[in-house]
TrEMBL record, chain A:
One Gene Ontology term of the molecular function aspect: ATP binding
Gene3D superfamilies to which the protein is assigned, alphabetical: 2.40.50.100, Nucleic acid-binding proteins, P-loop containing nucleotide triphosphate hydrolases
Domain of life according to the entry: Bacteria
Listed name of the protein: Sugar ABC transporter ATPase
Family to which the UniProt record says this protein belongs: Belongs to the ABC transporter superfamily.
Keyword Cell cycle: no
Matches recorded under Pfam families: ABC_tran (PF00005), OB_MalK (PF17912)
Automatic annotation (TrEMBL), chain B:
Principal subcellular localisation of the protein: membrane
UniProt topology in membrane: Multi-pass membrane protein
Compartments where located: Cell membrane
Natural source organism: Bradyrhizobium nitroreducens
Protein name: ABC transporter permease
InterPro entries, alphabetized: BP-dep_ABC_trans_perm, MetI-like, MetI-like_sf
One GO term (biological process): transmembrane transport
Lineage: Bacteria, Pseudomonadati, Pseudomonadota, Alphaproteobacteria, Hyphomicrobiales
Amino acid sequence: MADVALRKVVKRYDDVEAVRGIDLDIADHEFIVLVGPSGCGKSTTLRMIAGLEDISDGDIMIGGDVVNDVPPKDRDIAMVFQNYALYPHMTVAENMSFGLRLKHYPKAEIKARVTEAARLLDITDLIDRKPKQLSGGQRQRVAMGRAIVRNPKVFLFDEPLSNLDAKLRVQMRIEIKKVHQKVRTTTVYVTHDQVEAMTLADRVVVMNKGRIEQIGTPNELYHKPATRFVAGFIGSPAMNFLPCRLEDVGGTLQIRLTDRIAFALPPARAARYNTLPRTEKLLLGIRPEHLTESHAHLGPGVESFDTVLDVTEPMGMETLVYFGLDGTPVCGRVDPNAGAKDGAPMRLAMDLNNMHLLNEATGAVL
Amino acid sequence: MSSVTIDKAAPTRTVKYGSMSRDRKWALRWSYFFLTLFAIFSLLPPIYMLITSLKSSAEISAATNPWWVFHPTLENYVGLLTSNQFLRFFWNSALVSIFVVTITMLISVPAAFALARMRFWGSATLATGVFLTYLIPDSLLFIPLFKVFALFGDWTGIQLINRWYVLLFIYPTLTVPFCTWIMIGYFASIPKELDEAAIIDGASWFQTLTRIFIPVALPGLIAATIFAFTVSWAQFLYPLVFTTSTDQLVLPVGIITTLIKGDVFNWGQIMTGALLGAAPPLIIYAFLMDYYIAGLTAGATKG
């Protein structure tokens, strides 16, 4: 086991920069998830840690040693691929032991390790089967088993659950978390699924266009996003962004959303935003769960307004409501018994204690 | 199999005009018709050869029904199989084919692996180039090649012409490009993640080739082997040009040069020799056909 460090790592393909100078410190035993839309450089970063891609610039360190020019087999890492990449002509046991056999481990130890990994992953019964006789979830377990038996310094996962159906994905997500709790190997996990990222990670690295947007615990990213990209990427349904501006009305700071709708900011927020120029074009970032049905007694900082719903989506435990504010589509989450109906008027409440204010031009969260 | 399924399904549902099963039925009928036609067309010559090989010279030249044997005899078979000369041809052919297949595989498998997987400068152009060399017909090549070996003999004093083993240098010019091309195709179809997984597991390039690629691409390897064997076993022009002494001849050339004396054709023995010569490829096909079924990659990845 070891820590991993990336120092100003760059990857260039001809004239395209896929990864643009990444700095990242991954502690020993940590579970790090790289998340971002496709083409953001997350997989390239993982493959550079694995040694499957050369780095164009910078340094990668595993356990304190610079491994820039160390071939993959000498980096002591194990990787799980999206499409499993099991050796089709070998049984499950042979697949799992391939790396150990190449390194000429004693037979008894190989058997012990394979048995232990198979027990851990609950695939003991499948040990003599060929990959084609396995289901997708079983294949993914075998792929994980192949990584575990090697007892490497670092586990690398490249979108390992993307090929599974939704139900199995949730199940395997829990399995991966359990396995990590048991073996405690430093893990770098790549996914485009922010739910996977949030649920698995000790820390999430949000990437966009070859750069790191923000590094933080799942809760930090959710509650204190640094940029519009992170705010919009983390959370489902995504955060709403409403064009707005600040104005002073009778000594209190107000946020004006439309000609008709303006709210007084809660004192804490007002103090924080007071220094902002009133002319600046701003965006109000508000998550759907902070746009709920209005009650008779609203708490401090919660403001209500009337709107007409476009579409409603009953989810069972909640109902998603969609409406427009001056042409900007907005999503809210209301109680399933709140009486939300397609095309019907509804009074909603916005919890401004959980609002974010963003600079429209730079996307920075203020 | 499929026709049975259709018959069973037919009573339970109304078959509409233009429906899948109706189209399928007609497609099957047509394919059976043409397959039968093709089978008859391609099987007639060997059947005729078999009939002729069982006749005596007198019966062959007699004006009787050529499709029937009235006095079957094995004299042609006994004659050939006890002739040292014929056995020598057979032996030469076997040696040449086995060596050529070995040489071809030793060159084309690593070459294909390199061209398919190791991205190096000009690898794509080289892969196309390899295939282009196959497109040059042997009838165009044999004179320059002969010249090359003659010059080689003049310069070094090593005389290769009129030795059976000269064919070991020549046949690979036909087999290596094509086998490399086949293997590039097979190797390219193996998912990239498979060799990446092997590399991370600690395999060298060579181990990746021998322990992952060759077993996974076995159907392709067998196809290439069959091709190389067939080419070297049946090659006629090159041995005709490069070998002349009877003890250096391979089977196809040997049969023609020794069993046709002037304008006298020993038809019985020619047919017998050709049949016996066709036996080894037939046996090899029969053996390898079972393995020659694609789908070994199933289960490697999703799909």
